[in-house]
Amino acid sequence: MDTYNTYDTYETNTSNNTNEIRKVFNWIGLSYFVFMVVEIGASFLLSFILKSMNISGLNSWATYILGLAPIWAFGFPVCYLMLRKVPAKRPADEVMKPKYLVQFYLMLTFMMIGGSIIGNMISYVLENGVGIIIKNDTIDLISKQKILPSIIFAVILGPILEELAFRKLLLDRVSGYSKKYTIILSGIMFGLIHTNLYQFFYAFFIGMVFAYIYTITGKLRYSVILHMTVNFIHGILPMIFLKHIDTDEALELSTMDKTNPAYTQKMTQLLSNPYMLSYVLYIIILLIFVVAGIIIFALNHRQLKVNDSQSPLQKPEAVPAIFYNLGMILFFIITIGYSIFEIVLMN
Q1: Stated pTM of the model
Q2: pLDDT at residue 3, rounded to an integer
Q3: For residues 316-343, b (16+ Cβ closer than 10 Å) or e, as one string?
């Protein structure tokens, strides 16, 4: 099988054949484009089979398995086989102290919530300005499932597979060409693969952080640990609380007259719920984490750099070589197009 040998010689090839490097990124883009094509095709086929067999009301385990199978049992293996055509070289190993993992988590909290706010604001504007309905399907799905399978699939298996697909397999093959721009590429691809406007911005931000951590350490376990932590604390933990809180009653209280005796009675009942108190405490702690993350980022953002001085792709060749090729363009088109298709399907 032919391989792209540009990567093997980038450290010594001072002439830097940009066209050959562009071919590598073109193949990378095509690989992830095929990932999406196979995933979407498998999803439609599986949905058709379930409908034809009149199967509905699946339990949480079956819902996760059937929902994730098109991605990881079909799309990912085909993508992996294609990516093997490009030689891989893992970044140099570096140990990261636990205190830095904590600092990165706090910065991730700030970036994730900031990204969520951006996604929610844009979705709100589109929903109210254009009159379209935009749903956060992933969050809606997880919120309806049992806690144990959610932990298994969303907190353990999901982060491991996603870090393999969008950090290790991707960055081992391209980070040597330009650490800075391939970190950005990893974030963009990770955001787009979610095919959801609510999730794109925070997935983009945290995807870049995970890519940065893997690039400077060469150890996938650090980004996996942080990914698992983020998914549990920001995804599963609040749902544990909310499953035991009458959210309709809480919303009703926000519209009630506060001088009404019934308001006092309902508020007392709501606050007597230990899960409600835990949720309020959770929100307060999360806000503290956000402030801490902002401070840490402000104090250290200039140090969060990678050494790209020896990378073959420098300005202004980097962006065109990495992003302006058929494979990457096709990947961008299919992910954005499928996101729009899902929105149209809902309206």
Answers
A1: 0.91
A2: 52
A3: eebeebbbebebbebbbebbeebbeeeb
